[in-house]
Amino acid sequence: MLICCVLLGCSTEKETRLLEYRAALTQLDILERQYPTLRNPQLLSYISYLTQRLNAQTTTGKSYRVTLLKDHQRFAYHLGSGLIVLSSGLIQQLDNEAQLAFLIAHEMAHYQLKHSSQEHRFSLSSHKKGLQAEIEADTLALGIMALAGYDPRVSVYALSRAYLGRDGKNSISHPSFEERIAHIGERIRSSGWKPPGVVQKREFVRFQRALNTPL
After folding, report:
1. pTM of the shown model
2. 41: cis peptide before it, omega within 30°?
């Protein structure tokens, strides 16, 4: 009886993962119909390198696939099953690779922490449960990026650019913004982290320029 229960449990878990993956693919398909997908080999190579560098610092064995969508809006979220989408509009607001690393690590963290993909889409979470999920993902993302060699202090600027843009005027309505910034600052101060940490600007600028090349 115990063996049957264990086997049934494994079967149910696999079926659940398969359903989640299919649901994530469906969401990705909808987004790719709505926004042009960037498939420039230079872009894909850079994103693959960055994702692998971050994932090497985790112990979950999970795999990730990052899709770049061409749109002026700023968004980044995990669809489920390791599928992550980033908009070119968000990336263009950033200054360096370390900032992008934080945003990708944040979405990876949602997957590792088993957060519902419906709870944390970048501009949707404003309730208490959503804020808690964002803070948990921020905390894990800081550790991932620091272990990957990046300066975690840039996470504050990455989050600010994601919310406010370069001019600081086009604000996304998100009550948790100030709380997340405060939490990140406190976590870095209490972590004992010390420089140096890289930001990697030169290759990132080339990556940004490639976003404007033909699809």
Report:
1. 0.88
2. no
